[in-house]
Amino acid sequence: MARRLRQRNPTDRSIESRRRFLWSSGVAAGAVLWSPKSLVVGPGESAPDYTLRIQAAPIEVAPNRILSTVTYNGQFPGPLLRFREGRLVTIDIFNDTDTPEQLHWHGQKVSAEMDGAAEEGTPYIPAHGKRRVSFTPNPAGFRFYHTHNRAGANLFAGQYTGQVGPVYIEPKEEPGRYDREVFLVLKEFEPTLSRGGDMAQDFLWPSAPDKALKEAGETAMTASLAKGMPYGYEVGYKVFTINGHMLGHGEPIRVKQNERVLFHILNGSATEIRSLALPGHSFQVVALDGNPVPRSAPVPVLWLGTAERVSAMMEMNHPGVWTLGDLDNDDRRHGMGIVVEYAGRSGPAQWIAPPPFRWSYTRFARPGASAPSPDETMEMSFTKHNAADAGFNRWTINGVAFPNDTMPSEMLPATFHLKQGKRYRLRMRNTSDDIHPIHLHRHSFELTNLAGTSTAGILKDVVMLGGYQAYEIDFVADNPGPTLFHCHQQLHMDFGFMTLFDYV
Ligand SMILES: [Cu+2]
Question: Residues 6 or more apart from 386 whose CB is under 8 A from it?
Fold first, then answer.
């Protein structure tokens, strides 16, 4: 039976978390939890609340299929960190690798010094060194942490590695009723480069491209190819996992009929858009990027751009053994799925492709609501320069590619300037046919117009901007300091698709 969560004291909370928290991953539960107190504490230092170690480690994605990658605490995904909204937390981050690292607190409103982006002035965690960070977690909901290093052409760096872990900031009041909470991290491994790719393009609504943007993009691409340029590099993968295991390996998600399961799903990919469906079941979406949606709605399929999160309730009312998996047959067969097994049922997991469905953020908006007018509107145009950077596509914002030093030694001046307390609208125009998961650091933004459709009330920190489309997002400048804005697709952010805001 469903139950309402009660408020717990902090000691209760961690014990409860262990019980409620299911890493359907086959790793012993104790191994995936954070170490509660660090044993390595400097002179005069108090013990941290959490310890993270950046370290290379083997991870077994299937029996005898063992990868080597950089992890947090020797595991993939990194440990689930449960914070309490508004309660100060201290974390010691050790870097056991030879490379200075950045650990970014994605989706949180923290200071630039803590945020984990060199471009904002966050100090590196030195190679074989340590950095202590301390901040007040907010806003509540599903967030995550990941490396913010540039990878460039190095597919063993940045988010191509296993440096991804979930964060759940417990709200002061829990909204939903559920029996079981399941965190899922979707992630590919063994990346390779190819010329051109086959990313899904036709799942977003609204779907109509902007004529002028399309003409501009196609003209540029035609001219580039006519000059004999090949298509710029894209990344593909050999191994696909959920919670670090390929489909059919690791423990299934075990459920009972009539249970209510709250899924917290993170696309931890460096570059890919992911989809997810469970035959005979629907997802009741309750939060996007950790923020409760104005209108909860059921959908048969979830779509998540890189770094997006969806929290969704599911009624377990269709007994059997099923594959919760990606719609892409090839990716699912190479591991992008996890088995859901009802009590008393056995046999091979069944997959049934869902009927055609378009993913629309506006489905979760408050009907008829409109966003307040901004104090200022900023225009942004995103352009692809095919294969312009040693075979990689170069990306520009208003004609400027962000310099791509692997380890920036000094901060660059900001391009966009904010005044504290003002509301800004970003009018973003995409002259490429790629879908871009656009991310703003240290602030949440509101979706206000998607390809001509006005909307309001949906707060996010990543949004998939459709190919040849224009979107508008609004945010309030309420967290002073340098603020990074970029496409979260690693190849795009590493090759120019980035800019910096500051407060004046
Ligand atoms: Cu992009």
Answer: 220, 221, 224, 225, 229, 231, 232, 393
